[in-house]
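tool=predict chain=A
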Amino acid sequence: MPFTAQTTGMIDIGSNTVRLSVYRVTEDGAYRVIDQGRWPARLSQRLTADGRLPAEAVSELGEVLRHYKRICRIHGVERIRTVATAAVRQATNRDQALSALFEETGLVIELLPGEEEARLGSLAMLRTMNIEDGFVVDIGGGSTEITLLRNREIVSSVSFPIGCVNTSTRFELGEGPVAKSTLDAMESDILDKLSAQAWISGQPGLPIIGLGGTVRALGKLRQRLDEYPFANLHGYEISSASLDVSVDLLAPLTVDKRRKLPGLSKDRADVIVPGLVILQAVLRACRSSGIVVCGAGLRDGLFYDTCLPDLQMDGDDAVAEESIRNLRALYPGAPPSHLDQVNRLSLALYDQLASGVETPAEWRRLLSAASRLFRIGAVLDYNDCAQHTFYILMHAHWNGMSHREKLLVAAIASYRNANALKRSLSAYRALVRPGDEELCAKLGMLLQLAAALDRSESQAITSLHVAGGGGRLLLEAAASHALPVETTEVLALAKDFKKCWGLAPSLRLI
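tool=predict ok
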């Protein structure tokens, strides 16, 4: 699809937090977040007894929005899309508040219905995760949206006026510990509300894909407590048992003690317990065994809806494929024609070497991804390309693969030798399964051979046939011109390749 260069600001006026994300799209199709802002508004807590949003809260919100406009102006933003969710939606004076904010800031604020909020959250998930079926659950400060997906299509959706902030207010939690009786009362109240939607309990066993600050806070806490080696929240899995343990840990603590707990955001300490109880109730109602954290949310849904509405996401591995395309556009470390040729040669070598041998289906997928990303680190420094490639792939935001799969792709793409591989994997041992190191070495070595076959970056080889036997691997290539550089490179790799594959390669033109 053609891309239009644009820089866009997305502002989410949530019930707990007001957030800004500034997105940039380039003409060659690279897109990313270039700035963010966050302000703990607690709008749900500030609603008066008669449901009004006080003038001082509106005034503070106006100042925050003006600040966000200044940030957008610095980045040359052409359009700001601003939306408001549950707290403003529930305010009895919402029309006056929105009018006052427009007068103060010049921003037209869309008041999102709960169903539209759920749709945009689901869109963010669908564009960044390859999950086919599940419940998308977005717990905010003043509402919780639950969406049922089947075959990546929305089947049912509902918004409940229960969130971590208004639940805290309703049960008068204060600054002290939360008693077991209060936890039980909260869960019973939430389950009663959820029971009004029969479809929620009619799909047992489906995963919960969690969006929003409560789920992200839980993910950060669990990663810290469990000493998880990969800081990326997107795709992180949390069992129902870990959720229960977290509630048992946090509920007996005062808010002040929660604020001192490593891994937990200080400004979420007073509302994390009710948020987690909502999550517990949703898990029980859905009869699900665990949660997958989705790092994308409403602002990302707004971005895809506004800036990339025609983005094609077809095919079984569409999310990963789109992420690989975007990474290559963001970090152009090598000519695309060379990367595509190395990809073709890698898969041709693999298909012929693996012929008649039973190998896991994931091997080919991992090699295909790594062979298109192996030069990404050259955008920082060609001489240390492998190290930079590993770092970028382990720290950049890309989607469609599990944390373990990302690690394996990074290790294959950056492979140089067995010792370097051990060093790369050493910090991530909790993600590594038996046999993964051998997998990375074999596929990494195969990738090196494919790269050697296009060392002149001329895409001269038009077809490749492999013949193995007697400890030799004869590569018979049809090419558009002589291949002296490639022949030398293949010979230089022969000894190391034989250590992995038991075959010493040599190249012959046919």
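The radius of gyration is 26 Å. Residues 86 and 142 are 5 Å apart (CA to CA).
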